[in-house]
Amino acid sequence: MNVDIHPSWKEQMQPEFDKPYFAQLAAFVKEEYSKNTCYPRGKDIFNAFEHSPFEKTRVVIIGQDPYHGPGQAHGLCFSVRAGVAHPPSLINIFKEIQSDLDKPYPESGDLTPWADQGVLLLNATLTVRAKQAGSHQNKGWEVFTNAVIRQLSVKREGLVFLLWGGFAKKKAALIDESRHYILTSGHPSPLSANRGLWFGNKHFSKTNEILSQNGHEPINW
Fold first, then answer.
1. CB 3.0 to 4.6 Å from 79: which of 41, 111, 115, 203, for a disulfide?
2. Which reaction does it catalyse (predicted)?
3. What is the pLDDT of residue 156?
4. Which one is catalytic: 65, 102, 116, 176?
5. Burial class (CB in 10 A: 0-12, 13-18, 19+), 117
6. Number of neighbouring beta carbons within 10 Å of residue 148
7. Catalytic site residue 65?
8. Quick one: CA torsion of 24, 29, 32, 33, rounded to 10 degrees?
9. What is the Cα–Cα distance from 142 to 150, expressed in whole angstroms?
C-alpha cells in the first residue's frame, strides 16, 4: 500500500503498510472521512512523522487520541494550531515548563517547533470523529503506532520516552530500557494534575540533562 509519509518512516514502516490490518484501517479511515467530520485534516494525519524524521527523532511523547473539537488537532499530540485556545492538558504542560525551566507561558499552542527539533509527538490513535473521543480506537491505529515505538526501540539508541498517564505508561513494555531512557508521571489533564501527579515532574529539564550527557543538543521547549 502507498502511504504518504516521510520517506525515512516509509522505509522503516513499509512492512506494516503491507499487512492486512493496515489495508482494513485505511478503508475504515477513508469511509469515516467521506461520511463524517473527522480530525485532523487528511493531509495532517502523519504530520508528526513529517516533522520528526526517523533518524532525527530524539524524544518521544505519547498521547492517546487527537483533539476532537473543530480546528484543534493537526497531527501532533497535545498541540493546537496558533490562535486556537489552549486545551486544559496543554495549559498544564506549559505551566510545568514555566516552573521547571523558568520560561514564560507561550502565546501559541503549536508544538511544531518541538517536532522540528526531533520530538516525535505521537498519538496512539491518529484520527478521530468530531466530538466523539475515542471513536477511531481499536481499528488498527494502535497496532501501527506500537510498531513505530518498537522500531524506534530496536533501531535507535539513547532516545528519551516521556510516558504521561496510565495509557502511555503501558507503552514501556515496547521499549528496551537498556538502550533508552523512560520518564513517567501522571497525565497533564486537570484530573491528574490536580491530584498532584503531574506538576513538579521536571520532565523537560530532565530530558535536556539526558540529551546533554549524551552529547546531543537540548530541546528548546
1. 111
2. Hydrolyzes single-stranded DNA or mismatched double-stranded DNA and polynucleotides, releasing free uracil
3. 98
4. 65
5. middle
6. 23
7. yes
8. -150
9. 12
Type of residue at 141: W
CA angle 165, 166, 169 (to 5 degrees): 85
- Number of helices (H) and strands (E) in the chain: give both, helices first: 9, 6
* Stated pTM of the model: 0.97
Residues 8-63 have pLDDT tens digits of 999 999 999 999 999 999 999 999 999 999 999 999 999 999 999 999 999 999 99
If you search the block for the grid coordinates 498517564, which residue do you land on?
165
Letter for the amino acid at 10?
K
pLDDT at 140: 98
80-105, pLDDT tens digit by residue?
999 999 999 999 999 999 999 999 99
Q: State the Cα–Cα distance between residues 127 and 75, nearest whole angstrom.
A: 8
Q: Write out the three cell numbers for 115.
A: 517536532
Q: What cell numbers appear for 164 in the block?
A: 504521561
